[in-house]
Amino acid sequence: MEEKYLNDRLFFPATLRNRNSIADVLKNYIPDNGVLLEIASGSGEHAVFFQDLFPSIIWQTSDPEETHRKSIISWIDHQELSSKMPEPLALDVQKSPWPITNELSSLIKGIICINLIHISPWSCTKALFEESKRYLKKNQFLMIYGPFFRKHKTTSQSNLNFDQSLKLQNREWGIRHLEMVNEIGLNNGFVVDNLIDMPSNNLSVIYRLI
Ligand SMILES: C[S@@+](CC[C@H](N)C(=O)[O-])C[C@H]1O[C@@H](n2cnc3c(N)ncnc32)[C@H](O)[C@@H]1O
Q1: Cα(161) to centroid(ligand 1), Å
Q2: Is the CB of 115 under 6 A from ligand 1?
């Protein structure tokens, strides 16, 4: 066990609240084998939880922040999953090409991105689709989870407040419009395969590469 990382575990409280409902969606998309690539893994709490729940696959984490990658390693060690889970990739969606070897690329069956696109510039959403399509094969999925604005749907007051608070932190951040994200997806060869309403006014959107 890597002693040096044992105390680096971060705790993102939202992960405890949303992990079961996300797992309920994910279970329908878990392949028999291969790798699921997680973009923006954050603390790593989701990763170890999903790896435990879905032993048929290998959960490959990533995050551009070193403190987050240390936390992920620490969580992997803490949960005694280091023989199964690889170390996180230093992956920034906007830095092309992603640090993915040909071997890893051949094993990837799907990509998951939880709570990134509203806490990053719009260019990150574009990059997410542009790069994901390089590593996914036809019919494989990109799942995006988070809050969205939707045409013809009333936005909850909590999401309106959340959007304001995001923009105050960084004016390039903010809740995205689902229809605009779908358009970026379509421009990159992705169609919406499924749209699932999640607790606390979030959505899981499953895009498929066609
Ligand atoms: C709100 S946290 C979500 C973390 C985790 N997915 C969760 O739900 O707890 C946003 C994460 O996005 C990562 N992030 C920010 N900009 C990024 C980028 N350009 N590419 C990839 N990840 C990024 C941050 O380092 C952070 O870990």
Answers
A1: 20
A2: yes
- Which residue, 191, 186, 195, is CA-closest to 207? 191
Nearest ligand 1 atom to alpha carbon 45: 9
Residue 1 has pLDDT above 50, yes or no: no
Ligand 1: residue whose CA is nearest its atom 2:
42
Q: Is pLDDT of 6 > 70?
A: no
By alpha-carbon position, which residue is closest to atom 10 of ligand 1? Answer: 116
State the architecture of 3-209 in CATH terms: 3-Layer(aba) Sandwich (3.40)
According to DSSP, the β-strands at 202-209 and 141-146 are antiparallel
pTM for the model stands at 0.97
